[in-house]
Amino acid sequence: MCIMIKLLVYIKHHLTFIWRIVELINSILVRILWSHKFRKIPIICGVLSVGTKYNYRILELGDIESLHYLLNNQNKDYLNYFSPHKTDLKTLKKIVKNYNYLTFGCFDGDKLVGYFFLRLFFTRRAFIGRLVDENYQGKGIAKQMSKLLYAVADEIDFPIYSTISKKNIGSLKSHQSVRKYTVVKELKDNYLLIKFDKQ
Hints:
7 strands; Aminopeptidase
């Protein structure tokens, strides 16, 4: 698996045209092979929103500008460990539309205060990403987002992985408070490839 990840990372950063083809093929295959499992996701979002101050739901195209604002109005240092994709409007629209990602938002009323996603591969692997507005830190949002991502991944039967910096202690602790994980491999630049245990 690690060889495959290294290959994909190389293609993404050095062979842009081929990466676009890989993305397209992956999106088509995820849709064909796995999209029938997505039907219960809105129910999971609804259940995990009950009893909280916030609304957790799937992002829609109408949320793109709010997502753009959230991602582009955090302090630069705050985003040191979060750069899974570009944050321009065109890229965000593609991400929300295609089947390579299942994208979610945490809303305080109409305000988007958290962005989280499952990055899906047709080989039945999912990588997770999370970002909470820096002004909403410490309110339990990241933990709840993790619970939702794990629940969705379990429902569609995708093992969950993430790459997290050893220096990002807060993120590691937040994940571990919800679900145990195993370090699969130590990557360069102090990053860990981790796999979350299935519930």
